Amino acid sequence: MKETFYITTPIYYVNDVPHIGHAYTTIACDALARWHRMKGQKVFFLTGTDEHGEKVNKSATQQGIPPKELADRVVTRFQGLSSALTISNDGFIRTSEPRHYASVQDIFRKSHANGDIYLGAYEGWYCTPCESYWTDLQLVDGTCPDCRRPAEKRKEPSYFFRLSKFQKPLLGYYERNPRFIRPESRRNEVIAFVEAGLTDLSVSRTSLTWGIPVPGADGHVIYVWYDALTNYITGLGYPKRTEAFDTFWPADVHMVGKDILRFHAIYWPAFLMSAGIEPPLGVFAHGWWTVEGQKMSKSLGNVVDPYEMVEKYGADAFRYFLLREVPFGKDGDFSRKALVDRINSDLANNLGNLLNRSLNMLAKYFGSVVPSPSAPELSDEGLLCAGREILPAADAAMEEVEFHKVLAAVLNLSDAANRYIDTNAPWALAKDPARKNRLGTVLYHALEAARVSVLLMSPFIPTAAQRMWEALGCDGRVEKATLSEAGRWGGLRVGATLPRSVIAFPRIED
Ligand code: ME8
Fold first, then answer.
1. Is 205 among the domain residues?
2. What's the pLDDT tens digit per position in 440-498?
3. Are residues 112 and 229 in the same domain?
4. For 261, phi and psi rounded to 5 degrees?
5. 152 and 31, same structural domain?
């Protein structure tokens, strides 16, 4: 196993407040970061805000304030997401920070010195919301092929990055690193795009002052994507040769939405190759959420506010729903009904119920003290076997970033434990004093299944997992436990006194 793990979210534009899309990527990264920490790896998890460029400038102008003021105001909403959603990020970067200016100018200078940046003039169709130039061929009925809003013709002096030179190196990199772009279908899309030929990329603007100045070229600011992508190395201390940089670069995974995959899988490795820096090891593109069957948009008024979700349902429920409901990488639909149903069926009725009923019976039959299990009988085998298989299965699914499979597997275990209780009927065993040992064994295994489930579920629902962890008499913070403890059946402490009950997930009545 690699000793370190570096994961990043995209940096979010501060032209508007956070929505479900931002929360989604951040939550996914958080679950992965927590999982890898519990595997014993040294993890760095970076998130932050993208503050330069036309989009932010335009929004600030509309509000009649300088762009930095808008950024200072909105950034607090993104920073606040960490505590609202229980996000364990190790760093937060703002592209308006001086450390980032130094970083972007340094990599720009290196590419320039290597002959990969040159001065030219750019003419094209520009889409302001997407901050992208398009060619005649790419336009769709005069509109931007990404967002379908009208594009305008523009010409300006511009520095260009020799992207065309990197077609072969990029294709070689994709070939040598088949897991660089995931999921597989996206990888094929990117390869086809690069194979079709790459044109040089305009990487400076003279039409804008809200950005990082091009070193030694008055009037030019660096194109927002060149600026933004560089955050991933600034966050580790670049251009200084810091210990963090040496430890964590290249990044293991840049998590992104499907719409910004191209920037991460094509531009970013090319910028790095040109500056003599290793490209990242992976980019994973997730799908998009619609809301109650419709595209999310301000004009429809259906934008899902993560703060409101947390207030209404709690961070764990929101986190769990987003990662359980839809296979990561696919598009999905968000609906409150689906969220409520999911939480009630999986968390309240299944895992929550397993723990609570086991505690109730422990109180009733053993004065709440965990009994010592006797040798397993045939009817224990199914559950013990499920317990042995869960960790490797969950870890393999996590490697593939298949959150829904990990969660389904854990739910299967707690479901199996609930059925185990039903089949072994502790209430019947309790009637016969001669079967006290057997009764103790059944309760022990039921509670142990809850312990293993809680441990594996903790990267997804950290707050409730901690509550359940404590209710199971386990010491300390669950996130400090290691995943390997889930692979050893029998971690539940014999002789521990547990509470009579715990309601980790009350049923939601919406
Ligand atoms: O793109 N469902 O920032 P951003 C899922 N600053 N994800 C969604 C979504 C939806 N309905 N809507 C948006 C930027 N997203 C740049 C990134 S990185 C060097 C620079 C996702 O604030 C979208 O896919 O516009 C993207 O990954 C993220 O929100 C940030 O969008």
1. yes
2. 999 999 999 999 999 999 999 999 999 999 999 999 999 999 999 888 999 999 999 99
3. yes
4. -65, -45
5. yes
Nearest-CA residue for ligand 1 atom 3 is: 12
- Is 501 among the domain residues? no
| Phi and psi at residue 321, to the nearest 5° | -60, -50
Chain segment 171-219, per-residue pLDDT in tens:
999 999 999 999 999 999 999 999 999 999 999 988 789 999 999 999 9
Q: At what angle do helices 436-457 and 353-366 cross, to 10 degrees?
A: 150
pTM over the 0.85 mark:
yes
241 and 170 share one domain: yes
Which protein residue has the closest C-alpha to ligand 1 atom 18?
10
CA of 21 to the centre of ligand 1 (A): 6
The pLDDT value recorded for residue 133 is 75
Q: Which of 393, 356, 370 is nearest to 490 (CA)?
A: 370
Residue 478 CA to ligand 1 center (angstroms) comes to: 31
Domain shared by 259 and 348, yes or no: no
Which mutation among 9, 17, 20, 25 tests ligand 1's pocket best, with the greatest number of atoms within 8 A of CB? 25
Where is the domain boundary, 251, 286, 321? 286
List the domain range (segments joined by +) for residue 471. 336-487
Cα–ligand 1 centroid distance for 376 (angstroms)? 51
**Residues with C-beta less than 6 Å from any ligand 1 atom:** 10-13, 21-22, 24-25, 50, 228-229, 256-257, 259-260, 288-289, 296
Round to whole Å and give the CA distance between 124 and 131: 12
Whether 499 is covered by a domain: the verdict is no
Per-residue pLDDT at 10 exceeds 80: yes
Which pLDDT value is given to residue 122?
84
Tokens of 441: 């064994």
Q: Are residues 211 and 349 in the same domain?
A: no
CATH number reported for the structural domain that contains residue 47 in this entry: 3.40.50.620
Q: How far away, in angstroms, is 18 Cα from ligand 1 center? A: 10
* Average pLDDT for 334-355: 96
Say if 272 falls within a structural domain. Answer: yes
Element at 32 (helix H, strand E): helix 20-38
Angle value at C-alpha 387, between 500 and 473, nearest 5 degrees: 30
Same domain, 19 and 134: yes
**pLDDT of res. 370:** 98
- Number of folded domains that form the chain: 2
Checking if the pLDDT of 510 tops 80, the result is no
